[in-house]
Amino acid sequence: MNSRATTEERALHRADLRAAAAGALLVAAAAVVGTVIERTRGTLHVNWPPLYASWFPHLGPGTPAALAVAAVVILHGPSLAARLPWRRLVLAGWAAAMAWTWSLALIDGWRTGIARRLTTAYEYLTVIHRFDEPGAALRDFTHHILNNGPTPWPAHVAGHPPAAILTFVGLDRLGLGGGGWAGVWCLTVGTSAVAAVLVALRALTDEPTARRAAPFLVLAPSAVWVGTSADGYFAAVAAWSLALLALAATRRTRHRCAAALAAGLLFGLTCYLSYGLTLIALIAAAVLLLTRTLRPLPLLAAGAAAVAAAFTLAGFSWWEGYQLLVERYYQGAAAVRPYTYWVWANLACAVLITGPAAVAGVRRTLAAAPAALRELRPSAAAPPGPTGRLVVLVLAVLLAVLAADLSGMSKAETERIWLPFAAWLPAACALLPAVRHRHWLTAQAVLALLLNHLLYTGW
Asked: Rounded to whole angstroms, how far apart are CA atoms 411 and 419?
């Protein structure tokens, strides 16, 4: 490398460090301002702003495993990602993500960290018995969304379409009832999002780009919440929908029609797991834009429509449920949580769940955005290369996050609510120079370990 290139790379690295430092300052500002607001007005309804968490320094049985997994991924992750056969890499990425997420969850122990997470008064498992007749429960679902209605649903049941609660009803019917099995389901399925993002990245950019991103997808701080909330499961369903769409649109599979239809079915399921995940459509649109084809669209729409039709025929109206949710949302803490704080403090939460490396990757994304967008124009001399396609994909994720943030329906708790978007942002780390990867991976791991050892997260 000549001296000029070295000088330029050093300047870029300094810019990356400044971006990470700005992210840290944003978190610090959100913590200080939030603490003042909560102590003087009590309107944030979180114990450790901007996170829904409590200060609780502790060690646990998962601590040695978490340290070991972090060390292995930092030391060997980049080299293994570069040389493993592709299919083995995808499976290894999922396995490593499971090891990382399990070890973080077990820092709080089996009962507190996993088995009890979905059994609190806010959660799904408390109302399983009300679905002994699922058809009747679905027809009556919207009557219990409002706080002042008859026997209102717990917060998370009311806050989501019924596919979320039906997942745990289904597990219970299969003999996998209780908080332990529910936690295992969410953690196991949730970590598969790493494999889905890898598949999508290879299809939409190229294999080297996906390989560079792999260790960062594994060692993301968002694993702290993937292991403790159903939103990790939602994130994986959304990620597989987009991965299958990418395969169908790029013709990376011999079963393009089946992939497009399955993508639609999973997108439909995503929308009936969480109202806010309709924003995944923005990322899906970017996939079609990057591949310059609409061929998967009819089957994608058919799959999504089939899911919507099934729920509608069963008696649940998505639009009615959403309208009632908005009303329920402002019957609770959202009525007093200040929008002017959360509209920027939510971004501090995003920094914490994606980590400093992702912040640096997003900085490089934004710097490369003008050129990548110019290459998307039909009049461009050549379509975007792998780097440009990655930039456009990350920009679509950022657009979805911005829409969620400005909507006013994401005031606090975004460390779990935004997991479906956070699953994609570490892909931007593929833009960072390979020589710096171990340093950035270390920063990611240290942040996740500090979060899980110093705080008790609420979900």
From this structure: 15
Q: How far is CA 272 from the centre of its chain?
A: 16
Q: How confident is the model over 211-239, as pLDDT tens digits?
A: 999 999 999 999 999 987 999 999 999 99
Burial 248-259, CB ≥16 within 10 A → b, else e: bbbeebeebeeb
Partners of residue 51 on adjacent β-strands: 48
Residue 39 tokens read as 């102590």
The neighbouring-strand residues paired with 48 are: 51
Residue whose token pair is 């745990």: 168
- In angstroms, rounded to a whole number, what is the distance separating the alpha carbons of residues 424 and 279? 14
| Consecutive H or E run containing 440 | helix 437-454
Question: DSSP secondary-structure letter at 111?
Answer: I
Q: Is 184 exposed, middle or buried (0-12, 13-18, 19+ CB in 10 A)?
A: middle
Q: How far, rounded to the nearest angstrom, does the alpha carbon of residue 16 sit from its chain's CA centroid?
A: 23
* Residue 216 near residue 426, CB atoms below 8 Å: yes
Burial 205-233 (b: 16+ CB within 10 A, else e): beeebbbbbbbbbbbbbbbbbbbbbbbbb
Q: What is the mean pLDDT of residues 7-15?
A: 94
Cis upstream peptide for 50 (omega within 30°): yes
Q: Which two tokens stand for residue 119?
A: 């059994």
Q: Which two tokens stand for residue 209?
A: 């780009």
Closest listed residue to residue 252, CA positions, set 293, 212, 303: 293
Does pTM top 0.85 for this prediction? yes
How far out from the chain centre does Cα 134 lie? 29
Question: Residue 34's Cα: distance from chain center in Å?
Answer: 24
Residue 89 contacts by C-beta under 8 Å, 6 or more apart in sequence?
Answer: 80, 81, 198, 211, 214
DSSP string, 25-37: HHHHHHHHHHHHH
Angstrom distance (rounded) from CA 68 to CA 83 = 22
126-136 pLDDT, tens digit each: 999 999 999 99
- Non-local CB neighbours of 223 within 8 Å, separated by 6+ positions: 97, 100, 101, 104, 191, 448
Output 173-181 pairs: Cβ under 8 A, ≥24 positions apart.
177/128, 178/115, 178/119, 178/125, 179/114, 179/115, 179/116, 179/117, 179/118, 179/119, 179/125, 180/110, 180/114, 180/115
* Amino acid letter for position 402: L
CB atoms closer than 10 angstroms to residue 115: 17
Which two structure tokens, joined as six digits, stand for 430?
């593929």
